[in-house]
Write the structure tokens for this entry.
Amino acid sequence: MARKDGKDRGIVLKNGAWWVRLFHNGREKWHRADNKTQAKALYGRLKAEIREGQYFPEKYKPSKALTLRAWIDRYLEGVTSRGLRNMRQYGRFWSKLLGRKLLTEISPDELRHLQAKMQAKGKRSAHTINRYFAGLRRILNLAIAEGYLTTNPIKAVKFFPEPTGRLKYLSDPEINRLREVLSPEHWPVVAFAIETGLRQSEQFQARWDCVNQDQGILTVPLSKSGKTRHVVLSEAAVEILRGLTSWAHSPYLFPSPLTPSQPMQGRNFVVRVYEPALKRTGILEANWHTLRHTFASRAVMAGVDLRTVMELMGHSTITMTMRYAHLSPAHLRLAVNKASLGLMAAKTGSGTGSKTGSNEVGRANSSNEESAEVLEPLAELMEAPGGFEPPHRSFADCSLSHLGTAPHPLS
């Protein structure tokens, strides 16, 4: 870098901030940096772009010199989705590694090097590493939308392949064993998760003013996708709600035992109650999300079509729901036989085709009926709970104004 009188030419400290001063096509251009080191790096890169004819001043407005740490802080201030906790974790990670770099200085080569380094340490799985990079991709995509970047360097980084094996779900014997080891106080919490397929945060943040018992609907004001969704409750799920008494002293279905005005901490329940119960029953490779998979798996095996399961689960695309397709061979067999030539022959009563078609349809119907009978309804695993029926509230009103001062629901 050229120097003049012992100082770096083009690097200027002005009004407490560092600036890069350039001349391009006879015009003076200024670009701001956060510190002297960044100013030197920016000056060298801009001079190289000028020599190579690739310098475009409109790409480098003063705001373009924003560091990754500053942009992450700004990004987190505007996050309103339920993924805020994870995004904060990702933000702290990337701020520690690349926080001092300008957004425009982050290169695909550097990201690939970090990716390989994270894998070599072996402390994080391929799935977890992919989630960290996906978080950074989301952060930088917003920077592009705001005009701070032109391209996302993550686009040139290949994510690690993740295993796509069959999902773990609880069988009927496992559900029975789990019910036996859980106390009457804790079993309804687990049973409600299996009956509804709610995510952990959705269930433990659920409020009474979002329950419409007449219609059997629980409203989730802010789901994972950032949208409001309405969860249709089964009869067994409604029966569980009727057995709860938290409506009398808390706005939440499952309140904190110590502070009823606050929801129960889902992570505490999982660590102190649910995971020890799994160990006592010998159920391996299961977590709380396994209950959500159990809900979907039971529905598919009972013959519910995948499009309906997609709606019940709140999936934004059918791709997520297709993971359960392998659980419904009888249902798929029935569907393909509906379009079979054998069925047409059965309707016209033509010779052997009629016999074959009727046999196939009969086997398909029998198979479908058997698959629906395999599953023992979860309602039969629940003893009829006592308690009063909670007050009926409109799910359109999901405020926190309900604090347990409501009149007796039977009055």
Q: What stands out?
A: The chain is about 45% helix and 10% strand. The chain has four domains: 3-65, 68-156, 172-302, 327-374.
